[in-house]
Specification:
- The complex is a heterodimer.
- By secondary structure, chain A is of the alpha/beta class.
- In chain A, the strands form three sheets. In chain A, strands 3-2-4-5-7-6-12 form a seven-stranded mixed β-sheet, sandwiched between helices. Chain A has a five-stranded mixed β-sheet with strand order 9-11-10-13-14, sandwiched between helices.
- Chain B is 43% helix and 10% strand.
- In chain B, strands 1-2-3-7-6 form a five-stranded parallel β-sheet, with helices on both faces.
- In chain B, strand 2, helix 6 and strand 3 form a beta-alpha-beta unit.
- In chain B, helix 4 packs across helix 11.
- Classes of the chains: A alpha/beta, B alpha/beta.
- At the A-B interface, helix 3, helix 4 and helix 5 of A face helix 5 and helix 6 of B.
């Protein structure tokens, strides 16, 4: 039975389902208990599962991210909420040198089945330390899966999948879509990690987008359809495993690639996709690859400056028009 | 509390295994057989032996970059240990971890750790597992004096204290963080005083007296098993060798020969031997028999390591993800 709920509620249902099903699953983080998490993803769960399984932690990211690593190695399946991705920097050793390395470094003798829930995105007036989108940094660290659901449906299915996965998963949410609504089944289901989704088939121009940029790409595609341009929109959904095949298949069909992601320009996930296409499908290209991204600046507080940081539908249209010059 | 003679003999054997293993590693390293880094534990054996003698297979430890002693005392086998130091396929980590990363979760060894202070939060997590899933089991977290300045030390003690986790924080204070003496890196003399900041017991003990180590850790471990929460134990000791085997003059640049000599005379093994003789627990002949038996075991481990193959190159791509 499907009904319409928010992205945050979909995540909440995934957590509740996994905790109900498996007593190894527990949640910890700052203000996840009575407060329900600052974006209300864990609302009501402490009443249901108790203070030991929905655990409010001290403000000590290294202790509770590292704690999750130790708990995961010893039979638990912790889900950690990092209030803003910006705060993960204070636990970077635990993420990069511990969580991501244990399985390999110990020759497969340890598994680290844990989920780190983070959120990215500017647009709430929270300035440079609460608005970053540096998820692509983690693409450079082998040993971590990176999930990025853009809809309530995917949010629920991918979080259940992430919690049941035997690997550490960085689960990247977007703070501007927590209240977006969509159809979500009441029952449990999973959405695989590492599989991109063609959300709008088209034959002229490929756009590969993440999170908040998916809806913008779809809006632009509808507008361009009225002008006779048939855009294909792909929701990348994961940075690791990276579904290069889905991107290459689309580029081979359309001969074009536009990437759209809110991270800063340099080192953006679009660069990796562009390089993949240059290496494996260069002869398919009819136009230059265009990367739509944030600029290489911190996020400013002042509203017009903040808005200028966020890649917009207009930025996407400009990219489409640039590609159209070659078609 | 009297320690049974059988236990004392086991403590002696464990210390001898660690010492003899590392003396061989020292020699093999000097001769170029062991690649990478080797941080030796010689002189500190009483701590690993004394603490781990109170642990069962299902209890956990987290270890440090100077971890050979801890993992041997926790029950690691010498053959896969030595093979790992050689980078061989038969090693504990298939040759992919080396000296600083030996782990065996089945033995409760959650890994030696190359990052100073890196093991503390992981021990807290294992402590959470014990509390939630395995009541009565405990986690021992080994770390050094210099790691106790790291944020992870303070975050971890706070977390463990708030949740009364069964974690025993064991600080091996050997007086140096690489070349920087404790006087230069801390304003305090006894690291155990930091326990007060987290409302947990903190005690300082002679880390070269294995019987004191055994008794003090037994008490802390029992408290943890009873659900009474964490303890900070500080054991004062000294490393005879340099920070690692490549350290010029074995640390001669930052400490005096007299200091080193004084600590060599304070050898934890010699001290126990004196006790064993005085109390007629073991004869000199019996002690020598232990050394002979251990040497043979270590020689076997070296032969095993040398005859083992290196991992095939495909192994590089295994275990990146589970």
């Amino acid at each position: 039975m499907s009904r319409v709920i928010t992205y945050a509620q979909a995540l909440n249902e995934a957590l509740a389902y996994c905790m109900e099903k498996d007593d190894s699953v527990f949640v910890m983080g700052e203000d996840v208990g009575r407060y329900g998490g600052i974006f209300q993803v864990t609302a009501g769960l402490q009443e249901r599962f108790g203070v030991d399984r929905i655990m409010d932690t001290p403000i000590s990211e290294a202790a509770f991210v590292g704690g999750a690593v130790g708990a995961a190695m010893t039979g638990m399946r912790p889900v950690v909420e990092i209030m803003f991705i910006d705060f993960i920097t204070v636990a970077m050793d635990m993420v990069v040198n511990q969580m991501a390395k244990m399985h390999f470094m110990f020759g497969g003798r340890a598994k680290v089945p844990m989920v780190l829930r983070v959120n990215i995105g500017a647009g709430r007036g929270t300035a440079a330390q609460h608005s970053q989108s540096f998820h692509a940094i983690f693409q450079h660290i082998p040993g971590i899966k990176i999930a990025m659901p853009s809809t309530p449906y995917d949010a629920k299915g991918m979080l259940i999948e992430a919690i049941q996965d035997d690997n550490p998963v960085l689960f990247v949410e977007h703070k501007k879509i927590y209240i977006d609504k969509g159809e979500v089944p009441e029952e449990a289901y999973t959405v695989p990690l590492g599989k991109a989704k063609v959300v709008r088939p088209g034959k002229d121009i490929t756009v590969v987008a993440t999170l908040n940029m998916v809806a913008k790409a779809l809006a632009v595609a509808e507008e361009m359809a009225g002008k006779g341009v048939d855009m294909e929109v792909i929701d990348l959904r994961s940075l690791c495993p990276l579904d290069r095949e889905a991107v290459l298949a689309s580029v081979r069909k359309t001969g074009t690639l536009i990437t759209a992601d809110e991270g800063c320009h340099t080192g953006n996930m679009g660069g990796e996709l562009a390089a993949t296409v240059a290496e494996q499908a260069l002869d398919s290209l009819k136009a230059p690859i265009v990367r739509v991204s944030g600029p290489d600046t911190p996020v400013a507080f002042s509203p017009p400056l903040e808005q200028a940081f966020i890649p917009s539908e207009q930025d996407l249209k400009d990219a489409v028009n640039r590609v159209l010059e070659y078609l | 509390m009297d320690i049974p003679s059988k236990t004392v003999r086991e403590l002696y054997r464990t210390m001898v295994v660690i010492r003899a293993f590392e003396e061989k590693v020292q020699d093999l390293y000097a001769r170029g057989h062991i690649p990478g880094l080797a941080h030796l534990y010689i002189g500190e054996e009483a701590i690993a032996a004394g603490v781990c003698a109170n642990l069962g297979d299902r209890d956990y430890i987290t270890s440090t970059h100077r971890g050979h002693g801890h993992v041997i005392a926790k029950g690691a086998l010498l053959k896969p240990m030595m093979a790992e130091l050689y980078g061989k396929e038969t090693g504990y980590c298939k040759g992919k971890g080396g000296s600083m990363h030996i782990a065996d979760v089945n033995l409760g060894i959650l890994g030696a750790n190359g990052i100073a202070g890196g093991g503390l939060p992981i021990a807290v997590g294992a402590g959470l597992s014990c509390k939630m899933k395995y009541p009565g089991q405990v986690t021992v977290c080994f770390f050094g004096d210099a790691s106790s300045n790291n944020g992870t030390f303070h975050e971890s003690l706070n977390f463990a204290a708030v949740h009364k986790l069964p974690v025993i924080f064991v600080c091996e204070n050997n007086g140096f963080g690489i070349s920087v003496s404790q006087k230069q890196h801390q304003a305090i003399v006894d690291i155990s005083v930091r326990a007060a900041g987290y409302n947990m017991p903190g005690i300082t003990v002679d880390g070269n007296d294995v019987l004191s180590v055994y008794l003090s850790s037994a008490e802390a471990i029992e408290r943890a098993r009873q659900g009474e929460g964490p303890t900070l134990l500080e054991y004062k000791t000294y490393r005879w060798r340099g920070h690692h085997e490549g350290d010029p003059n074995q640390g001669g640049r930052y400490r005096t020969k007299e200091d080193i000599q004084a600590w060599v005379e304070n050898c934890p093994i010699k001290r126990l031997e004196a006790y064993l003789t005085k109390n007629k627990v073991m004869t000199k002949k019996q002690m020598q028999a232990v050394w002979d038996e251990v040497e043979k075991e270590i020689d076997d481990s070296i032969e095993f390591a040398e005859q083992s193959p290196f991992p095939p190159l495909e192994e590089m791509f295994q275990d990146v993800l589970a």
